Every structure is written in C-alpha cells, then in structure tokens.
Amino acid sequence: MKKVICSLCLFAVIGAGVFFGIQFFTKTGIFKIPGVVYYDESLSEEETNKLKTIFTEDVVLDKDVTISSYNTLNRPEIKENEYIYNIYVPVVDFYSSETNVAVENVDELFNNCAECSYKLIDIDDLDFKQKLLSINDKYYLDDFDTGAVFHVVKFESEKFDEEIKPLVNEAFAREYPTKDKVLTFAQTGVTAMSRGMNQKLYEIGDATFFAANIKDYLSSFDITHTSNESSFSDFANARNICSDGRFINTLTAIGLDVVELTGNHNVDCGIDSANNTIDIYNNNGIKIVGGGKNATEAAVPLNLSEKNTNITMLAYNQSTGGATTGDYPGANQYYEENASSEIFAAKARGDFVIVDIQYYECSFYVSDEEETFCDFAGSSAGDQIGFFRHLIDLGADVVVGTSAHQPQTYELYGNGAIYYGLGNLFFDQVWWPGTTRSLILSHYFYNGKLLQTQVVPTVYDANMQTRVMENPGWFLERLKSERP
Predict the structure, then answer these.
(1) Is 354 helix (H, G, I), strand (E, B) or coil?
(2) pLDDT digits (tens, 9 = 90+) for 306-328
(3) What's the rounded Cα separation, in Å, for the pair 412 and 356?
(4) Can you tell me whether residue 406 is helix, strand or coil?
(5) Segments of the chain assigned to CATH 3.60.21.10
(6) Is the pTM of this model over 0.85?
(7) Is residue 423 a contact partner of residue 406, using CB atoms and an 8 Å limit?
(8) In CATH terms, is domain 182-480 a member of 2.40.160.20?
C-alpha cells in the first residue's frame, strides 16, 4: 500500500512538473507574460499620450498590440483595425489671394510647412474667418475624399476584435463633415437677362446657351441664389430691362432655388409682368426673398432649413427705386425698425442670418479700360461701409451687396463678414471689363456653423456666356487691396 501511495505521489509530482514545465516554456498559465503595447514612432506625442490613457497598467492583454499611424491625401478604405484620427486641411489668412497648394505627396505638406504661407489645422477648427485652400485643385468641402490630409491610426493585434476594439472603438469614433451633412449655398450677384441678351436669344433661340459654362458648377449646390432685376415680359426687346420669357430656362439650368427681387427694375415693364414673373417663379419651385406682389409679401423673410442648419435670409431695397409700399409689386423697402427686429428675432431662434442689400450703385465703372474705383466699397450716395457694418452690429452674420454691377471688396467685421458687391452674373454689359465679372459666394454650413465662404470669381465673354474665372488670384488680390 505504501508503494502504491508513493507511486501515486511520484506520478503527481511528475505530472505537475510536466504541466508547469509546459506553461513555463510556452509562457502560459501562471508563467504567462501579458501582451505588450508597442507605440510606433509614427505616432505623435499627443496620440501616444491619449493611447496611454486607454492602455493603462490595469489593462492586461493576452496578445501584443502594435499601434502606428499614417497620412494620405485620399480618404482611405478604412479597415476594421483602423480609425481616422484626424482630418487636416490647409488654411491661410482670410484675405489671401491663394487658392491652392500643389504637392506631389503628403509628406511635402508637413516637411515644407515652415516655408509656406498656409498651416494645417484640424477640420474641427475650421471657420469662416480663415480661408480653406485646395490641395492639387481638390477642395475638401466639395469632394470630402480629397483636398485634405487623412491621418489614420492602425492597431495590429492577433486579438483585435476581442481585446482592442472594445477598448478603442468609442474613443476613436468621430463624426466628420460629409456631403450629406454639409449644406452648400451659392449666392450670386446681379442677373438682368435683357437688352443685348434678348437680342442674342433671338439669334440663337436657346436660353440655356448663356448658362452652358456655369450651370454644372452652380447646379451642384444644395441652394443656388441670384438677384434678378428683370421681369419676364412680352414687351422684352434689345433696348429695355425686360426678359424674354424663355430666360426662365437659363435660371432652371443653373438649378436656381432662391431668387431675390430687391432690384430697381422689376417693374420696368409693368405691374402685370412683375406679377406674372412671380407666378413663374412659384410654378418652378423657386423661393422668393426681398420682393413680392405687395409690400406685405415683399417683407416676408425667407427661412431655409436643411441638413441641420437654419438660415434666415433678409433682403432689402435701399437704393434709387423699385420698392413697394402698398398693394402693388416691387422690392422690400428698407426700414431700420424692421431690419433690427427681424435680425433680432432670427438670432433669438438660433438661425444664421444673411442680409442682402440693394444699395446705391457705384457708377465709375463706365470705361472701356480697367477701372478700379468701384473695387472699393464706395457708392454714388450714402455711406456704404457704415451702412453695411451697421447691419453686422445689429446681429447679421453675413451682409451682401447685390446691386453692384462690378465686384467690390469684402472684409471681416465684428463677428461677421461683409461682401460689398457681387457684380454681374448674367447681363449684357460686355463693353466695360469690370461689369463682365462677378463673385459667387459659395457658403458651406455644418450643423448650423458656417465653415467657409469660398469667393469664386466669374466672367462672361462677348457672347454673354458666364464661366468661372481661370487663375483668379490677381483679381482677388486687387479686391483685397481695396478693403476698408
């Protein structure tokens, strides 16, 4: 019996030795070495510190994990073990005439940044007081897959799903701007499809001709606006400010959503034409601001609510005529009391407020040479700068002049931005260089915040076909030099 007990004890000792020996040599059981976290040198100090708050000493891993990062100029196909940690975009000063950064690879953006005028910022820090640049002619807010640096953090572990994902999934989950969440809104200047445009239409017969080179750009926005000063009329000819009825096709071709009627020519061809024009807009689903069939209609603010952004658009006539004060069509007359209360009410609702003003025109552009006087925010009457700034003081976020036939300067003022004049989008003034140009204000909103207003110059040729201006840096520099 004693021998049996001894044999059993010996067997137990040998078994235990084998068991613990296997654990020792395989590093399992009580001899198991916990998984190690390896931080690759590609990680920034900030990222490493953040990761160390997740992988603390209390976290025991079964398998090693290596954490690294990489940058790319194109949104990558994110694998299960990867997360976009940041999206960086290049910005410059608001007044800069630069529009693009040209690089061959992503490293150039970081290695040469000390020598460049731009800086890279987190997309969350982007706002309208900076100017976003394209990268290799790709504008991030138009594309969302290029035009930025996509910084990705990668976790490599044999047990990513079981061990790593539960630890990092929430910490690294971020929401970024996407096309279905960013509201795009193009504001354009004076449209007056009349006189010479009527004559050209009689020759070619197709009103979409004038929009052929700009329609793809303008129709790409969620909301497209113009200030049309000319009503559709059977009396339209080559000498008056009235539009052939076929010009509605020009407006639908650019995807027009909002028409402003603050101009001083909308009743030039009679009350019936003005009223019928409003009916045409309504029948085509085009919203109206700053004008109407009577003073009450003309004064109604336009509320735009899309993609988690609420905009109140107010538009007034403060110029040489065209306003209605009774039961007849015309523009919305500016009254200080009305503007103050309407801006206050919109801000109280939390809306973003855009105020458009038909102001007294600058008329010093009448030269067949380049004339820069109207680049400055000067009008033929009144204090244009003081008036526009006052609207910002009242609480407006953006103030836009929609009467200037030649683009004027722009500025940051207070808590907002002022664009003193947008120039001609569609008109027949081909004989003066300045009046063939305009500015498109391409607004980008994200969750109610204005991320950017991209200033896009346009020009039309002798055929009155409008297109985006090529190499606009010189023109933006000229306008910048005239800011108040």
Answers:
(1) strand
(2) 999 999 999 999 988 999 999 99
(3) 16
(4) coil
(5) 182-480
(6) yes
(7) yes
(8) no
